[in-house]
C-alpha cells in the first residue's frame, strides 16, 4: 500500500508565493511509486484540497481529512513546505501533534524558537568554533533603545525583524543618521527587532538533513551578491546573486563547517531538512552564525536542491529520505 502524504502549502504571509512554487516542484518530483500526494492549501479560514475539476474540497480540521468521491481520505504523514506562518513558526506542528499525524519538519518548540533570530543565537552561542556577532534585541521602537544602540554597538549595523525568514524589513546602517529609518522599517514588520554589528566576510548557506537515521551535511553554497546583503530581492530576483555550489572554502574550512553544522542541528533539536546561513570572517576565517531556516525553499533553483544534486543524489531520493525519517 502506498502511503498517503499531504503536501501542505500556502500560508498567512507574503512568503506564500514562494511556498506555492516550492510545492509545485515537490509535487512533481516526489516518488509516485511510493506515495499518493494530495496538495492541501492553507490560508486564513480557508483550508482545502483542489480536485482535478478545480473544485475546492474543505479540510475537516477535527482530523485533517478530506472527502474525495464520497471516500474519506486520512493521511499517513505531512510534507510541510509552508514557509512563514503557520508552517514554519510551530503553529501547524502543534496542531499535527495534537491530532497525531507525523510531519517532515521540526517540532512545535524548535519551529517557534528558530523563527526568533535572537533566541536562536542565544541557544547556539556555546557551540565550539561558532561565533555570534555582537547584537541587541529590541522590543520597543523608543528613544531609549535608539540611544542604547548608539552607546553599545559599533557601525556598520544590520537591522532586521527578529521573526520571519525572507529578509523583508532588513537594512544596513552605515551612519547614525540612518538608524531611525531602519528601526522604523524593521518595527513595521515585527514587534521585536535585532540590531547586529556587521561582520565582514564571505557568506554561505548550507543544507543539513536527517536521512536513514544519520545527520547529513550537504555542500555549502557561496552567496556572491551584487546587493550589499542577501535581502528579499537578492534571494528571489534572478541575476542579482551568484550562487556557487560547492562554495569556495579550503579543506580546513570545509572540515570545520562540517563539525559545526551537525552540532547546530542537534542543539536546536531539528528534524527534516534545514538551511543554515553563516559568514566566514574575512580577516580570521572564523565561523559566524547568521540564522537557520527550518522550512527551506524547494524550487528548481533553491539552494538545497542545488546542494543535493552536487553530491550526486537525485532530489526525488532526497524527498524519500525526508519522508521516511518521520515514520
List the helices and strands and how they pair.
Elements: E1 3-10, H1 16-29, E2 35-43, E3 46-50, E4 56-58, E5 66-68, E6 71-73, E7 77-80, H2 91-99, H3 108-114, H4 117-124, E8 130-131, E9 135-138, H5 143-152, E10 157-161, E11 171-173, H6 179-187, E12 193-197, E13 201-211, E14 214-217, E15 221-225, H7 232-236, E16 241-244, H8 251-267, E17 273-281, E18 287-293, H9 303-310, H10 315-325
Parallel strand pairs: 1-2, 1-7, 8-18
Antiparallel strand pairs: 2-3, 3-4, 5-6, 9-12, 10-11, 10-12, 13-14, 13-15, 13-17, 15-16, 17-18
Label this structure with key terms.
globular; alpha+beta; 18 strands; seven-stranded mixed β-sheet; 327 residues
Report on this model:
The chain is of the alpha+beta class and 327 residues long. Helices cover 30% and strands 29% of the residues. It is built from ten helices and 18 strands. Strands 8, 13, 14, 15, 16, 17 and 18 form a seven-stranded mixed sheet that branches. The chain has a five-stranded mixed sheet with strand order 4-3-2-1-7, covered by helices on one side. Strand 1 (3-10), helix 1 (16-29) and strand 2 (35-43) form a beta-alpha-beta unit. Helix 2 (91-99) packs antiparallel against helix 3 (108-114). The longest helix has 17 residues, at 251-267. The chain is globular and about 65 Å long. The chain starts with a strand and ends with a helix. The model has no long low-confidence stretch (mean pLDDT 93).
Amino acid at each position: 500500500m502506498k502511503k498517503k502524504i499531504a503536501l501542505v502549502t500556502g500560508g498567512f504571509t507574503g512568503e506564500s508565493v514562494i511556498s506555492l512554487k516550492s510545492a509545485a516542484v515537490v509535487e512533481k518530483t516526489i516518488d509516485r511509486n511510493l506515495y499518493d500526494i494530495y496538495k492541501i492549501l492553507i490560508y486564513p479560514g480557508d483550508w482545502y484540497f483542489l480536485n482535478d475539476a478545480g473544485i475546492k474540497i474543505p479540510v475537516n480540521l477535527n482530523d485533517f481529512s478530506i472527502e474525495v468521491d464520497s471516500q474519506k481520505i486520512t493521511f499517513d504523514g505531512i510534507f510541510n513546505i509552508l514557509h512563514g506562518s503557520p508552517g514554519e513558526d510551530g503553529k501547524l506542528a502543534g496542531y499535527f501533534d495534537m491530532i497525531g499525524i507525523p510531519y517532515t519538519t521540526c517540532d512545535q518548540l524548535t519551529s517557534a524558537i528558530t523563527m526568533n533570530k535572537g533566541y536562536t543565537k542565544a541557544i547556539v552561542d556555546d557551540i565550539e568554533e561558532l561565533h555570534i556577532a555582537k547584537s541587541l534585541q529590541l522590543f520597543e521602537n523608543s528613544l531609549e533603545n535608539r540611544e542604547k544602540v548608539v552607546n553599545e554597538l559599533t557601525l556598520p549595523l544590520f537591522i532586521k525583524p527578529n521573526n520571519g525568514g525572507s529578509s523583508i524589513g532588513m537594512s544596513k546602517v552605515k551612519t547614525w543618521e540612518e538608524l531611525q529609518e531602519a528601526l522604523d522599517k524593521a518595527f513595521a514588520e515585527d514587534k521585536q527587532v535585532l540590531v547586529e554589528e556587521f561582520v565582514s566576510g564571505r557568506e554561505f548557506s548550507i543544507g543539513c538533513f536527517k536521512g536513514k537515521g544519520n545527520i547529513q551535511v550537504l555542500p555549502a553554497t557561496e552567496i556572491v551578491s551584487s546587493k550589499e546583503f542577501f535581502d528579499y530581492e537578492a534571494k528571489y530576483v534572478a541575476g542579482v546573486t551568484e550562487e556557487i555550489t560547492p562554495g569556495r572554502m579550503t579543506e580546513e574550512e570545509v572540515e570545520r563547517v562540517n563539525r559545526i553544522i551537525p552540532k547546530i542541528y542537534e542543539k536546536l533539536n531539528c528534524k527534516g531538512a534545514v538551511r543554515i546561513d553563516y559568514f566566514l570572517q574575512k580577516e580570521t576565517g572564523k565561523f559566524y552564525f547568521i540564522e537557520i531556516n527550518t522550512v527551506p525553499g524547494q524550487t528548481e533553483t533553491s539552494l538545497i536542491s542545488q546542494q543535493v544534486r552536487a553530491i550526486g543524489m537525485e532530489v526525488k531520493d532526497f524527498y524519500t529520505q525526508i519522508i521516511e525519517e518521520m515514520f
